[in-house]
Amino acid sequence: MEQRLTGLVQRRLTQVALDRFEDEPVLLLQGPRSVGKSTLLRQLADRLGADVVDLDDVATRDAVAADPATFVARPGVVCIDEYQHVPLVLDAIKAELNRDGRPGRFILTGSARHEALPVAAQALTGRLHRLPVYPLSQGEISGVEEGFLARVLDGDVPAVGPLPMERHDYIERVVAGGFPVPLSRPRGARRARWIDDYIRLTLERDVRELARVEQAAVLPRLLERLAGQTAQVLNIARAASDLRMSERTVDSYVRLLEAVFLVRRLPAWGTTLTARAGARPKVHMLDSGIAARLLRLTGEKLARRDPTALTELGHLLETFVVGELLKQASWLEGVAGIGHWRTRDGDEVDLVIERDDGAVVAFEVKASQRVDGRELAPLRKLRDAVGPSFLAGIALHLGAQSYAAEDRLYVVSAAALWSASEAD
Q1: Domain spanning 13-132: which CATH class is it, in words?
Q2: Confidence (pTM)
Q3: How many angstroms separate the CA atoms of 326 and 329, rounded?
């Protein structure tokens, strides 16, 4: 079934932002362009009785740059959209907070990672709380309030009955991704055209606003290679060799692509857990739909059963599922660490999420409709290495059935991530 958005989507982050704004002087909503940050900011401003200062507007940007102190000294809540256009506004906010540092003063949005802006690096240390704004979750798209990860982190794997989602339905969701605009269009050429324009404008405008890129023409090719590595250990050396560039330059360009939210590094978790644990990060495209487009993978191509298509689906499905879990994690309190676990013996767990108290849940993603007991070996080894702090290891797959496989290990339909549990 084709996914199409109609109307305004209710974001789970709305209430999270309001709750945290009660404690924080400055709240920063950061994420990729066109993901809905401005819409979310306007909704928050309406709820708080505030106006929005839009720095995407050139005239407004020039006025703020000329006199930032006047704009931030307004009474009540001050909301600033795309603050990275005038990063000096942070110094004015700092000065204002020195006079009045109470919570609930400023809400900002930004399409570049805060730490990537040199002027912004230390301006609001200890006074700014960052909330990531990701593409829409599957629950937000479907109008379902997801609680799967919250339940698992509470030590309760939700009971779900058979979820008869077909393989092609999963593929459709993977290829569609979570950006609102393409989801409002029919699948095919009209969605692909938007994604192509989005990638081009991000590379030509947003990356160059952050840094002087001497070899800008190589960025599209680098991004394509990173899409080809999605859900795999990041291999800077291979990308550098393919592009005939130095590893140092490629690494700096990858960090720029991270800064504009096209890719993300998933760090290694548990590097001191065993002597043979790996320390290299994985790379994931932030959105599976953009990854599929960069690789020119359509739903029809991914539906094939040949070895190449099966491998490509496996990587894209992992990126999709990891993305859904990270979206749910972004709404929760008490998450201390997120990463992947890999050993030099070849054992690999796709995602590990750690609570503040050290309790751990782990996920493996399987692009198959059944999971053999032998495929649980990495989760089993991680469970044994972590010990009593290991809450659950879950193999998410494309089949309909969900069940407990053995002590603290479960096989669960991937659709349970955005489906109501039997207890709800």
Answers
A1: alpha beta
A2: 0.94
A3: 5
